[in-house]
């Protein structure tokens, strides 16, 4: 999910071949870091079969990741503006490498919880920092050029990386004898490559002011952006569904236990979101909002229909449509929050949006996991769909009221 770059403190730089190469090296490192975060997704049914985890346990393991992201965004997401991009990216990737080692070491619940928490801490540091880094490297390599290359590449690295990790993990798990170890070994090697790429890339924050006293990121969530914060919550709730319990639904309710299929499902959802974000660049924000609301509502209903009909093609089609909606809706939310926030609070406003969004990634999925302990998976998913429709209705009402009340 693309985060617009905060205003950096930079020295004037001229375009060089090193900045051009650095742009692609950071893009690759960004993609690897985000891909690693979804490696466990197609493996959750294997953990369930091996260690007897319930759907609720899987949602808790997933939620710990989101908690790590939120803590990282609050405590460290803003530090690269003054410390430098590489000084934040290198330890962030180191955290993910440590998480890979934990995943590789065992499958017990405490180990999984610790590994997911470390992954979340790393991803929270990577997301904002790498996006800002790509923006600055693009500007240094192509002064005065359109931002389109930066926007497309950062979207593919971020959202596309989330889908790629699940797909690669699913493919590996289907063709190796140690499916709960090999994917993490492969990504440990890739993370080492990412560390080398960041170490070799040129730093872009070179004019560092005197170090002020440390304080956590302040969150500004002003009243005019309430509808867009709700949009971020709703969009990430769909992403949370497909990166946590959806593979289990496919295996249990739809009776398709293929790990390749589980990874391909997640990949399809995030690929659809990335494509939608890349292809709607010329639409105005109201049009993006309308498209996102309609597609996400329709997609969730199609997913529910796929479960009721026990039809994998319908379920998959719903995931793709919901991915288009969630990707577009979140892009509209980022654009609106950026435009509405005062310049001196823009970075904090975006941090507030991401905080609310990651709550959306966590809270509804935990509720869904709890519901599966008392009801059937189909009944629990029906409740999730009702919640999504209510949230999307609230988004439409709040944003329409804001537009109607705006001065002409």
Keywords:
Growth Hormone, Chain: A, disordered N terminus, 2 domains, 15 helices, mainly alpha, transmembrane helix, transmembrane, 408 residues, MFS_trans_sf, single chain
Shape: globular
Query: So, the CATH homologous superfamily of the largest domain?
Result: MFS general substrate transporter like domains
Look up the CATH topology of the largest domain: Growth Hormone, Chain: A
Figure out the total of helices: 15
> What is the number of domains?
2
Distance between the termini: 32 Å
Could you describe the largest sheet, including whether it forms a barrel? none
Q: Note the quaternary state here.
A: single chain
Domain Major facilitator superfamily (MFS) profile: 21-408
Membrane topology: Multi-pass membrane protein
Pfam family, one: MFS_1
Transmembrane segments: 21-41, 53-76, 88-107, 113-134, 155-178, 184-205, 226-254, 260-279, 291-310, 316-341, 348-371, 377-398
């Amino acid at each position: 999910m693309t985060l617009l770059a905060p205003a950096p403190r930079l020295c004037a730089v001229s375009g060089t071949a090193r900045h051009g190469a650095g742009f692609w090296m950071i893009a690759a490192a960004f993609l690897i870091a985000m891909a690693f975060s979804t490696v466990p997704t197609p493996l959750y049914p294997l953990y369930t079969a091996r260690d007897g985890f319930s759907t609720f346990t899987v949602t808790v393991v997933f939620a710990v990741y989101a908690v790590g992201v939120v803590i990282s965004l609050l405590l460290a997401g803003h530090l690269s503006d003054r410390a430098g991009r590489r000084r934040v990216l290198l330890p962030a990737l180191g955290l993910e490498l440590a998480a890979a080692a934990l995943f590789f070491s065992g499958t017990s619940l405490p180990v999984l919880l610790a590994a997911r928490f470390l992954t979340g801490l790393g991803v929270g540091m990577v997301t904002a920092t790498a996006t800002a880094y790509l923006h600055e490297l693009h500007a240094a390599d192509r002064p005065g050029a359109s931002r389109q290359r930066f926007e497309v590449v950062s979207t593919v690295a971020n959202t596309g990386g989330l889908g790629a990790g699940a797909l690669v993990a699913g493919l590996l798990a289907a063709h190796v004898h140690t499916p709960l170890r090999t994917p993490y070994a492969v990504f440990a090697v890739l993370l080492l490559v990412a560390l080398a790429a960041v170490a070799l890339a040129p730093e872009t924050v070179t004019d560092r002011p005197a170090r002020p006293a440390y304080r956590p990121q302040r969150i500004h969530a002003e009243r005019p952006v309430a509808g867009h914060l709700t949009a971020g919550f709703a969009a990430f709730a769909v992403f949370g569904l497909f990166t946590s319990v959806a593979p289990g639904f496919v295996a249990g309710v739809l009776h398709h236990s293929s790990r390749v299929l589980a990874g391909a499902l997640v990949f399809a959802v995030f690929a659809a979101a990335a494509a939608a974000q890349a292809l709607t660049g010329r639409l105005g924000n109201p049009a993006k909002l309308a498209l996102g609301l309609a597609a996400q509502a329709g997609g969730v209903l199609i997913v529910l229909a796929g479960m009721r009909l026990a039809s994998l093609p319908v379920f998959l089609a719903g995931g793709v449509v919901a991915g288009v909606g969630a990707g577009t809706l979140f892009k509209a939310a980022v654009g609106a929050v950026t435009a509405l926030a005062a310049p001196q609070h823009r970075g904090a406003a975006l941090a507030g949006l991401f905080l609310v969004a990651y709550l959306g990634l966590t809270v509804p999925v935990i509720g869904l996991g709890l519901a599966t302990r008392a009801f059937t998976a189909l009944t629990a998913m029906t409740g999730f769909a009702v919640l999504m429709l209510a949230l999307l209705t609230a988004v439409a009402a709040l944003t329409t009221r804001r537009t109607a009340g705006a001065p002409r």
